Amino acid sequence: MDTRHEWLDAPTSAFRRWQETEATGADSRRFAPRSAKQHAAMFARFMRHLQHHGVTVASFGDEHLGSFLADVSRRSAPGTTTGLRYIKLVDRMSRHLIELGIRSSNPAAGLVLATTWPDSEPAPVFLDVDADRRLQLHVQPRATDAPLQVRDRAVVALLLGSGITAAEFRTLTMAQVLVSAPRPHVDVEECGIRPGRRIPLPEYADVALQAWLRAAVDRSGVHLFPSPRGPGALQPVALWTIVRTALDAIGVRLPDMSPRVLRNTYARRLLLGGRSNEEVSRMLGLASHRTAVRLRATIQSRSVPT
Question: What global pTM score does this model have?
Answer without folding.
Answer: 0.67
